Amino acid sequence: MIPERYATYEKTVTLAACNMGVVNGDKQANLAKIEANLREAASQGIDIVAFPEEALVGAAECAGCRPGHPPCEAHQALAETVPGPSTERIAALCRELDLYCAVGLAERDANDPQTLYNASAFIGPEGIQGTYRKLHLGSLPWVTEGITFTPGDSIPVFETRFGPVGVIICYDFWFNPELTRIMALKGARVILNCCATFSGPGKRDYMVGTTRVRAQENHCYVVSANHAEQGSAGQGSYGAESLDEGRANHFLGHSTIAGPDFPAFSRAFVESEAGEGLVSATLSFEKLHRWESVFPWREWRATHQQPTSRLIAEEFAKLASGS
Q1: What backbone torsions phi and psi does residue 4 show, to the nearest 5 degrees?
Q2: Residue 173 CA neighbour count, 13 Å, CB half
Q3: How many other CB atoms are found less than 10 A from the CB of residue 112?
Q4: Domains and CATH numbers, the chain
Q5: Strand spans (E) along 94-178
Q6: DSSP letters for 289-323
Q7: Which of 58, 76, 96, 163 is the most exposed place for a label (fewest CB within 10 A)?
Q8: How far apart, in whole angstroms, are the C-alpha atoms of residue 190 and residue 188?
Q9: Is-contact 38 47, C-beta < 8 A?
Q10: CB 72 within 8 A of CB 148
Q11: Are 55 and 84 a contacting pair, CB within 8 Å?
Q12: pLDDT tens readout for residues 295-314
């Protein structure tokens, strides 16, 4: 049974992940791929599409960005405000095709042109709803995004005819589960994880498994959209001899859509292979909410578990203040 707060939304949704081979530094080539995949998604009746982290510009390590300096000229040239030329073009497509998407890009701060964010724009038939800006940025020596970009400062959810949707980026999702939980507490039943996940020992199992766990623990449908496999074999080692080296741009692929499958626990409904492709799944919110007959955790948080919620918030506040 659909809870009253969700009663006016659509009861089913078709979600898709674009396992995309991003062309580093070439926005026009990437826009063409994004448009082609949006058109294909519309022809398949897909409602919401997730693209990878930095799908518009590429998630390459940057030799030009240096600690203590503004982002390099190349990143400045690639970055756009939102709204901006690329997101407005995508918004026109979403209006034409009647679908939603989350697209990773380098976002320029409208008030400070030298401040850039690793962001994902959420766009639908109604227009550009806003961006999620990555909070936990990777650091040297592995990656350079922490010196290129500034962390975000909010955890938004976006309104759709399918209910609230959360958008999150890679490290924020894989290693920081409290962020997905906050989105779910804000009402999101769909979480779109735009990621740039490298290959490595055990990474496929970790990626698929963590997508399933985040979905089950929050009673959400989750899409993890990754870059398609690139680079040469043997890159991306996590051996002891390589822990102080930068990560090569050798991506895993294996975009995944997962969620609770009452009465079963979470399943990976679909998983891409390593190469480029669009994968999708049609899912029922009525089935999703069947879990609330067993474990209505949102309701509990708002009623008899409020003291526990306050305790958790207080402990986080202490940690944040260093006390």
Answers
A1: -60, -35
A2: 32
A3: 9
A4: 4-295 (3.60.110.10)
A5: 100-108, 116-124, 127-133, 157-158, 165-169
A6: HGGGGT--HHHHHHTTTHHHHHHHHHHHHHHHHT-
A7: 96
A8: 6
A9: no
A10: yes
A11: no
A12: 999 999 989 999 999 999 99
Tens-digit pLDDT profile for the chain (323 aa)? 899 999 999 999 999 999 999 999 999 999 999 999 999 999 999 999 999 999 999 998 888 898 989 999 999 999 999 999 999 999 999 999 999 999 999 999 999 999 999 999 999 999 999 999 999 998 877 789 999 999 999 999 999 999 999 999 999 999 999 999 999 999 999 999 999 999 999 999 999 999 999 999 999 999 999 999 864 333 444 344 444 554 455 899 999 999 999 999 999 999 999 999 999 999 999 999 999 889 999 999 989 999 999 999 999 999 999 87
Residue 292 backbone dihedrals phi, psi, to 5 degrees: -70, -15
What distance in Å separates the CA atoms of residue 241 and residue 260, rounded to the nearest whole number?
A: 39
Structure tokens of 84?
């901006």
219: tokens are 């009673």
Residues 6+ apart with CB under 8 A from 66: 72, 147
Tokens coding 200? 């490595």
Dmax (CA) of the chain? 55
Residue 80 makes CB contacts below 8 A (sequence gap 6+) with: 86, 87, 105, 106, 107, 108
Structural contact between residues 41 and 51, judged by C-beta atoms closer than 8 angstroms: no
Per-residue CA distances from 172 to 71, 119, 138 (Å): 22, 12, 10
pLDDT per residue as tens digits for the range 98-111: 999 999 999 999 99
Cα distance between residue 273 and residue 109, in whole Å: 36
